[in-house]
Design goal:
Oligomer: single chain
Number of domains: 2
Strand content: under 5%
Structural class: mainly alpha
Distance between the termini: 25 Å
Shape: flat
Amino acid sequence: MNSVISGLQQFADLLRPFFFGVAVVVGAVCVADWAVRTRRLKPFSGIARFMRSNVDPLLAPIERQVVLRGGQPHTAPWWAFGAVILGGILVLYLLEFVIGALARATYASSAGPRGILALLVSWGTALLQFALIVRVLGSWFGQTRYSRWTSWSYKLTDWIVEPLRRIIPNLGMIDITPLVAYFALSILRSVLLGLL
């Protein structure tokens, strides 16, 4: 298992400069495309023709989404650049998460049943806390308990949020029960791990 973990770590170490290079290239292309779209470059120059024929078709889906949501078409390159950066960060974060999870699982298995139980408690509370974050962020973007992207988070966290909602009043328009539930799960994890 240690060889798998070290192999994944080496892969992550190789991905960092790769994603940085991709971000630099995409950033340069996006700056050039933005300059063409906002007429900062001559519209009939070679760069402008290249951008319109090769880059703009790639950005067309992003541009459609930006316009549908009330944005300006010339901001599409910046949204694409942000998506590339966010995607790279997300891939690296998930890879680091898998490496950490495998390392913890290896350590827990060497500690016996008590170690495995401690690992399950940690993973279970982490999953519930992640579901609370998804629930809150989804509500900011208009996702309800019946939305396909967030319904799972409501199913996982209703058992702790709904009783708290009956006890804790809203602060104006702000519902703090998910925040209270998040900290309650942290305390529960500490207590359970202390008992093990």
